[in-house]
User: Fold this.
Amino acid sequence: MNYRNIFQNILPPERLHFDGDIMEFHSKDETEDLHFRPGVVAEPVSTMEVSALIRMAFEHEVPVTAGGARTGLSGGALAIKGGLVLSLRRMNKILLIDEKNHQVIVEPGVITEVLQNAVSEKGLFYAVDPASQGTCTIGGNIAENSGGPRAVKYGVTKDWVLNLEVVLPDGRVIETGANTLKNSTGYNLTGLIVGSEGTLGVVTRATLKLLPLPRFQALMLVPFTSITNACKTVSEIFRAGAMPSAVEFMEHDAMVLTQEFTGNKEISIDPTDKAYLLIEVDGFDESEIMPQCERILSVLEENGSGEVLFAQSDSEKEQLWFLRRRVGEAVKAASIYKEEDTVVPRGMLPDLMLAVKSIGEKYGFRSICYGHAGDGNLHINILRDDLSDQFWSVELNKAIRELFDVVVAMGGTLSGEHGIGLVQKDFMDIAFSPDELSVLKMIKNGFDPKGIMNPGKMFPNS
Amino acid sequence: MNYRNIFQNILPPERLHFDGDIMEFHSKDETEDLHFRPGVVAEPVSTMEVSALIRMAFEHEVPVTAGGARTGLSGGALAIKGGLVLSLRRMNKILLIDEKNHQVIVEPGVITEVLQNAVSEKGLFYAVDPASQGTCTIGGNIAENSGGPRAVKYGVTKDWVLNLEVVLPDGRVIETGANTLKNSTGYNLTGLIVGSEGTLGVVTRATLKLLPLPRFQALMLVPFTSITNACKTVSEIFRAGAMPSAVEFMEHDAMVLTQEFTGNKEISIDPTDKAYLLIEVDGFDESEIMPQCERILSVLEENGSGEVLFAQSDSEKEQLWFLRRRVGEAVKAASIYKEEDTVVPRGMLPDLMLAVKSIGEKYGFRSICYGHAGDGNLHINILRDDLSDQFWSVELNKAIRELFDVVVAMGGTLSGEHGIGLVQKDFMDIAFSPDELSVLKMIKNGFDPKGIMNPGKMFPNS
Assistant:
């Protein structure tokens, strides 16, 4: 198909690309080593341009894949069928910080941390904090319903999105809701679009909720000599009536790898420690935090934790968070790997960890686990090490199926925050029955009858 | 149609009704004086029975309207096209209180307050608290995405539902998600079903999130001599960094009517007070509450509130909440009325109140307003008093259209927590463009191609 002919009248040539570095940039994301070259990359700067591009793609049945910072972890923004990649990086304006209503209106290309900083200057708080927050964009967060450490107290992206402007697969533009905290008016289209991985339309504007900015944080790193005890502690913290703003889990190996990767070894690691919890409590006032910390400390003691390292200064806090946020990259640098994003009911975490390790033993792979334990969301990184091609391409899928079977039996599911995208789509039959899949497919077909919108994602055999 | 022939083999006769008081009970709800008699009322006790009934209704194209406690405020559970009313009152079991995972699994007929009490005995908290919580059911709350005073801190029903079992309009049974706090696996079907007003299927089981139970509440009643100041104060409370668990607004007349209606006049009301805020702060520890109260008190002072009445005992707290929760009934007892459930961005509340009163003056009606001011959700009760039939049936709709136009222009919408149901459906064109309505309709038709599921609701001209 001659994409130049189709799209050249919509955007000026400097924002319509058929070759060069930008094509390479939009051929990848952060998922394994996947590479898919689009036919054309367009950089619209307005909803009208997005609409015109999609309308033309609809007419010519060109696949459309929206993309931003390419930080995805499920291959969701890869143009696996070629066609048009709609880069939303230039639509990166914060349109309005509405202090009176505690809301912000943004374009999808705004970097998450840029938004956080802009609102915090006004004493306001946008809590969703994926590890990639320094580079990822709000549009991508909306597509994947991203979370992060603070989701345990403050929720994931869907809990912050009040209203969306969306370009439908035929180019029509709709708003999904209203700029209100509550809404029982028609179906929850906003909630349906969030997490739909760009398969139902393209978000061109979002109204997000803000909260007053908590001014105080206490942060502690807690070692455990038993993985099971560390996991068990997580659910007991909540049962004791504490509401921490983060409860992160790291295996011993994750910590070691990250220290080596970053060169930051100021925290001494005892070889007998098998796992760590990083626990944060936040509030508006120091006096609000202390009673919570005390409740947490007594749970830690009851569960046989090692000595708690309390961050004493802002820079100590930053250092601990820096380590936690770099675990993903460190693991990635250590070996070819495959990452799962399993999520289970919080209290099932010890069982999930046992299952991971036992399946690993059975199939002979090494895994490094870490993640948002307060939400029951565990990132399981399976390392290639010196496993054979045959194992990696065939046997591994069996192992992952076995793992997902266990996860679903526990009341859990495939992805807590990365989305299904390309790399998990063939496991969807484990999480959904044929009837359930047919409902998802019915929604997809209703929105996108020509199947042009991010094709080849989410659905098995797509 | 001979409903007896169609359904008699599915349920025993004592749970299949064609006459008697139960038919009358299921002909009404709490919306104005509406009355629609169903053809048959069925009382299933299991998902299998619900599925069998719906499968038969699908085959014979019989309208199906699910119902429970008949406390709805938008006519959502009225069988306006006759047919089958599926009463879910007998499916009222709390199936599992899962303390380890902070979850509860319930059938739809569980009364909201029964659930709250059952989990609070285990130190757990289900926060959604509609005024009708003593009689309404979880199934109805899910259908309408109900809120209540504590929604301002804890969210509405959608924020508490993790997973649903749903019988589709052809009788197939699906689960919408997983029993997890996070989920990025396929479309958010759970979020789509919540608030869909029984038009996409019938919920037969729900997994709900729980939190640790806050043990301490401070409650204050705050008089204002200016409605505008009372409204303005609401958004300033949040801007000052407080996170109250309720911020309720009552006009002077609402307070007077409720005192007269309940006979409870222990709180003295000054005739110069034009409005009241009822403000609650909660926490796990008394020391967590006090700094918040102090911040709130200084905002109140800056905004010229009258003397703050702090509830000193549990019984004083109960009395204040009792008054607040009975406002709706009191207004209803005073006059024929029409209630709107408008919601705007929180800071627009003063403007909304001015608009209500000015439209009232223009058209010559009296209104009494109260509601969940912290969410920008205002219940506007228009009183019939001695207005003519002509006014009530024709002119009033013009006034309401004018009001909704203003609300939508403010970024707000028609319903914050009551749903659209029957009584608001003809205003949907104000909140949604034709393209937006066509998307809602596409979803409806995809789920329910024969249009049997709660027909005549939500969509204009339906």
